[in-house]
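Supplementary Note 3. Input sequence used for the single-chain structure prediction.
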Amino acid sequence: MAAVGECSIPVPWNSVSLTHVEYPAGDFTGRLLAYLSLSPIFIIVGFITLIVFKRELHTISFLGGLCFNEGVNWLIKNIVQEQRPCAEAHPSVYSKYAMPSSHSQFMWFFSVYSFLFLYLR
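The predicted structure, written as discrete structure tokens, is reproduced below.
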């Protein structure tokens, strides 16, 4: 892992034009993972659609849990304050701190909650 301010050879980056998620140019795996990193957006759109049309208490509480999870993520980020590696290479990154990852924490909450919902039901 690179120390703060120490990046390896600069890599040209491409971005997904929809949301400016960046991946190394010419890297198929990076491109696939860049598109997969957009899954939380589609999950939120799906939940809002379900809430508008179904109005089920379970769906509303699940979305509330996701929002609470994001609040916990923000709190942990501001307590730990782990700097992003090679932050100067990506000046367009909005979030100041890297750990914990918002995407991975979101997907873990979604996966565990869905598993427990199906298992306990």
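The helical segments are 28-36, 39-54, 57-80, 102-120. Strands lie at 13-16, 21-24, 82-83, 97-99.
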